[in-house]
């Protein structure tokens, strides 16, 4: 390979996991100039090798981030540039396998050294090759399927805070979503979380259609930056070359942003908001924009977890993410909040490829649940409650138990029928303010009574 025989041994400095080596311009006519994101091999004094990536070019020096860390790397080490960027293994053999941030298998399975490789971190697909998102990904989670549909090619995060069951929720979506391939990327996971994801996929019988890229908390932080690119490169290939409907799950993008911050500090870059690099938005957008529905192929749908430190929605990571993505699922107190969550693409599928009553059920349930919240506040302040307020509170309790609990597993049509049943248990048909033809068709029980004006007694007289 070009450049594999030429090495550079003048190490200028080592800061954290960043190594800077002198590379004189035009030092060899047969040597290809190092390029941004190219790989390099660092040969240590004891004969061991470390893989590194070019992250900065400046006059006669090149900065590299060493994936396994710079422990044991001395200033008399030698650097050889490989002339190509990081690559991920792509073939049907990677299904059911687990890889680390450098692309090496870590599950003890057979070697994949002879399988084809694909470069990572390429540009987003040409918009002319995309089609409008119009197909739904069913998850059997009613707070998603009924109220904020997940649409193919959508890029959407789960906003949450530490301590919430967002990883367990993400794993449930991975095993229940009607996708052909699931590509999972774990960033800075503790071993218990990694094992939980893997066991969940295996126990559900979906591991054979799953590919896992995992960076543990004990792994070098620089490998964390490669996990999203690895996962998305593989997902694109499955979608474009095999026409698969691919769901990419990434957790946690705040760990990815923190890794960016640590690298930028080591390189003495000027920090921006709260110490994060100035290109945080661009770095996040490069990954999120990989989601696409291909005109000649399948689709890539991207669902991520973004934790908000201190439950602060103005934190730079969720704040920038909100400008890039097409909505968010807001997970707090163990439930998906119907008011903080939003899917901007749901109108492309609701009532078009779903049942005719979907839109009316969604709007009516949210309106009545909002009324239930108001009635609960009145009750907490010791105000007198009307009969209608009591029924609103009853509906709010049933709605939380039957729909908002993230452990509920029910298909869309059954969820719509359950919504009609819940409404019928609390309200008269005429109180729903819904289309009469839908009430006649779906409302359980007798037809809606005619609406009458309330009788108000005359002042000072008999009624």
Describe the overall structure.
Strands 8, 10, 11, 12, 13, 14, 15, 16, 17 and 18 form a ten-stranded mixed beta sheet that branches. The protein has helices at residues 142-145, 166-176, 191-203, 227-242, 253-266, 280-288, 316-324, 358-380, 387-404, 412-426, 436-442; strands spanning 11-15, 18-22, 38-43, 49-58, 61-66, 78-85, 87-89, 98-99, 117-119, 155-160, 181-189, 210-216, 245-251, 292-293, 299-307, 327-332, 335-336, 342-343. Helix 2 (166-176) runs parallel beside helix 3 and helix 8 packs across helix 9. The chain is an alpha/beta fold and 463 residues long. The model is unreliable at 447-463 (pLDDT under 50). The longest helix is centred in the C-terminal third of the chain and has 23 residues, at 358-380.
